[in-house]
Amino acid sequence: MPFIKTKNIHTTPNRSLRYICDPKKTQGGLNIVSVNCMPDARNAYEDMKQIYEYYSNRKFNEPMPKKGKARVKLIHYIQSFDPKDNISIETAQKIGLDLVREMFGEDVQAVIATHDDTGTIHNHIEINVYDLKGRHFSSDKASLKKIKKLSDEICQRYGIEPFDRENYVRQPIISGYHEWKNLKHGTSWKQQIRERIDKLITVADSFDDLRNRMEQDGFTFKDGKYICVKAPGQQRNVRLKTLGDNYTSQRIEKRIAEHKKKAFEVFVTSFYNISNGIKIKAGAYKNTSALNRTCGKYMRLYEILGQEKITTITEAESKLIATEKKYSSILQQIQELKDKIGTLETEIQASIRYFDDMSFMQRTFPKKDEDKVSVAVIKEHGFRKKEDSFVLTEQLEQHKSELAELNYQLSSAVGEIRKYKEIVDEYYLLNSGVDHISKLVREAKDRTTSEEWSNMIVKQRKEILSELESGISSPMTVMEKKLMEKIKNLRLMNVEPYEREKVIKALAVIRIDKIDSIEKARRLSVRMRSSAASVKDISKRASFLRRSRDYDDLIEVIRSIDIYPPERKTSEHKKTPPKKNNRR
């Protein structure tokens, strides 16, 4: 990925040639090649001086005039290569030489010096503005564009990727000493604005959203031909484009989109990848119902994230918080509505009693508490006859329908809370640093039913018999090889089929759980027995106990063929005390 920039040399061409031909930068002059001049600073200067003065009728080392600029003597190009290209000095020299000859022809006078002192290999190319035939060269935007295009074409011939100009971002330009001093002491307004934009890009949805967030923090924007921004306490506005190529409105939009895409890949894709990871790690258990439910759970969460366009954990947490607030609000409305319904039911009963059960004297001079309540309700609402109280019944029915709607919204909010909480919890579990996939696979294996366990053993048994018939087998551990040899010997011997099937079943169990030691088989057996003791469901307990018995049978088979012989306690012989020497 070569990058080219240019500079015109108006005065002191000898100094410029001495710089690029510095022996310390060119391995003692070995990394210098030239065209139509000598490959050292002094002689190259004399050769170029002779051609320049002959065709221009001016001095090659003329000083800077008092007014205007001096004429261009040399054109200096710098061709830098990316360290990722892993380019050698010899290849860089060839590329520089080809570039000079194809761009300026065979009559050009040029010096190409390859430097590697900065850690990045780059060519310094200096050409005389006049060639041997008097043709004049100039450096402008058109010629720079042409040489950049030619450089990319030449580099592609050498297998080097061309420079990506569309996505290239220049570093912010320091306009002067004052700005450099402020940057050094941390008091630069521009740097303060840059840092705030960089921070908000990770949370903003668009440039307008970023702008609103900055305005809330006290920054002010001014629209016009160029968008300007001013930090809190700053006196003058700053154009966004002067902050650097990375801070124009178009570039900020692009950076926000790139961050969203990256966040989506990190956050959302992790839920999709875990399903595949579980399937791979499950091995023979990959088609069990428990494992399919576990994988289905993560695929469901992945689909939810896609449907609701949740791209970051921050968005998921925001939705969870918003749903919890909604749940609390609905719960409060339900409680208020229940209180209103209770009040209305009491008032309806009081109005019925007033018009149906109470006499004129009771209405006029109420003595009982119930009568007083009924009279108070009628006076409060101003009812004259019984039909007037029917409005309370209508209000009650309306409140009951509203309560049913709120209960439905409450159940929906509960479902959403569970959904978002599950997403947040699973994300933090996946990124907790613990091997969460292994835990999920182990839990799914423990939920395998007896029927599924039998089917896996039958499937492995068929594969073992097929390997015995064909004589072709997959790579096996030491334990598997011993058991396979035992099965072959039992087939040759006239033994009971039960004995042979017992060894085949043991090998099938080893392949299902990838057991490579007797200690692992013992741990699995103990775990199955403890799981059976902790469950109340009879079918689950029977499944655990059956698998425990199968692991015990496996241990017995392994012991019988002496793969792992039982540990024998060494008998401790009592040491006879030394005879006493009675001799003095």
What is this entry, summarized?
With 584 residues, the protein is an alpha+beta fold. It is built from 19 helices and eight strands.
Beta-strand content estimate:
5-15%
Query: Within the largest sheet, what's the order of strands?
Result: 1-3-5-4-2
The level-1 CATH class of the largest domain:
Alpha Beta
CATH topology name of the largest domain: BirA Bifunctional Protein, domain 2
- Report, as a whole number of angstroms, the end-to-end distance: 98 Å
Structural domain tally: 5
Report on the biggest sheet.
5 strands, antiparallel
Alpha-beta classification: alpha+beta
Mean pLDDT over the residues: 86
Total strands = 8
The gross shape turns out to be flat
Q: What letter string, H or E per element, gives the SSE order?
A: EHEHEHEEHHHHEEEHHHHHHHHHHHH
Classify the helix fraction into a percent range: 55-70%
Show unreliable segments: none
Protein name: Relaxase/Mobilisation nuclease domain-containing protein
Coiled coil: 320-347
Keywords: Coiled coil
Domain MobA/VirD2-like nuclease: 19-160
SSE topology:
Layout lengths: L2 E7 L3 H8 L11 E4 L5 H16 L17 E7 L8 H16 L5 E6 L6 E7 L12 H17 L19 H9 L3 H13 L5 H10 L3 E3 L5 E3 L7 E2 L9 H34 L6 H19 L5 H44 L3 H5 L4 H13 L8 H41 L5 H11 L3 H21 L7 H15 L4 H17 L4 H17 L3 H23 L24
Helix pairs in contact: 1-2, 3-4, 8-9, 8-14, 10-12, 10-13, 15-17, 16-17, 17-19, 18-19
Organism: Ruminococcus albus
Pfam families: Relaxase
InterPro entries: Endonuclease_MobA/VirD2
